[in-house]
Design a protein that fits this description.
A 5-stranded parallel beta sheet has the order 8-7-9-10-11. A 4-stranded mixed beta sheet has the order 3-4-6-5, with helices on both faces. A two-stranded antiparallel sheet has the order 1-2. By secondary structure, it is of the alpha/beta class. It has 2 domains: 78 residues, no CATH class; 135 residues, 3-Layer(aba) Sandwich (Rossmann fold), CATH 3.40.50. The protein contains 11 helices and 11 strands. Helix 1 packs antiparallel against helix 2 and helix 4 crosses helix 5. It is globular and about 65 Å long. Helices cover 41% and strands 17% of the residues. One of its GO terms (molecular function) is hydrolase activity.
Length: 256
């Protein structure tokens, strides 16, 4: 924290607009709950607020973290939330939107616009079985202010379906390619478009798929340039990275 920010906080305490406890939180830069230290200044450092990973956390812990984050950001995203846990959280926190497919909870301040940047991210999915990962990627991108075009069930087994949607993929700023089985979709897309491709291997596939390992290795070994690869089933990581690229393209265009 710089001296200017510190001076502002101290002046706000002096004039009574900020309580001592709130000033402590701002100076400390995280909210210490004992079970979690919520990073209240991450958005200022990285451009995006902290995201809650729901697996392993109780509903009560998630509720408290969401309530803390709502005090420091206009957008709150929680991932890997099962339906039962989501219902418990939504009983205590208003205005949350739950996606059963993506297993995400999202809150946005009523004054916050849906879309913050021009253009869109294309989320391309090989098969319907890959939808949970593809939707996690798409909803993560939307949670951070990007517009998304979903292009689903266009795997290489019926590659004509991909060509039918090629113009929409070509015009995206970034493409997320989600595929299981042998993971060939990312390499095919990478050889057809000029925008960056973020490849997401999924654990969908028969025995020799090894819970996504074969798709991961195929994507890492892709001969098409311009492809980066995230971990197996990591739709969140793909959505975050794609939005980071998308945002910086938008900000760079503004400076020209």
């Amino acid at each position: 924290m710089g001296n200017e920010q510190l001076d502002q906080i101290l002046n706000e305490v002096k004039n009574g607009s900020v309580s001592i406890e709130e000033a402590k939180k701002q100076i400390r830069a995280f909210d210490d709950m004992g079970f979690a230290k919520v990073d209240s200044t991450r958005e200022k450092r990285t451009g995006f607020p902290e995201v809650i990973y729901g697996e392993g956390k109780t509903a009560e812990q998630i509720i408290r973290i969401i309530q803390s984050l709502k005090g420091s950001t206009n957008r709150v995203l929680a991932t890997r939330i099962d339906q039962m846990k989501a219902l418990q959280v939504m009983e205590s926190v208003n205005d949350l939107v739950y996606s059963e497919t993506a297993r995400t909870l999202f809150w946005k301040h009523e004054d916050e616009p849906d879309v913050l940047y021009n253009g869109y991210i294309a989320v391309v999915c090989a098969g319907t079985s890959d939808l949970p990962v593809a939707e996690e990627a798409a909803l993560t991108a939307e949670a951070f202010g990007a517009s998304v075009k979903r292009i689903y069930d266009v795997g290489v087994a019926g590659i004509h379906r991909l060509f039918h949607n090629l113009e929409d993929i070509e015009n995206a700023t970034v493409t997320i390619a989600v595929a299981g089985m042998e993971g060939a979709l990312a390499s095919v897309v990478g050889g057809l478009v000029s925008n960056p491709v973020v490849a997401v291997p999924t654990s969908i596939g028969y025995g020799a798929n090894f819970q996504g390992l074969s798709a991961l290795l195929s994507m890492l070994n892709a001969c098409s340039p311009g492809i980066s690869v995230v971990n197996i089933d990591n739709g969140f990581g793909a959505g975050y990275y794609a939005t980071l690229i998308h945002k910086n393209i938008h900000l760079g265009a503004e400076k020209i």
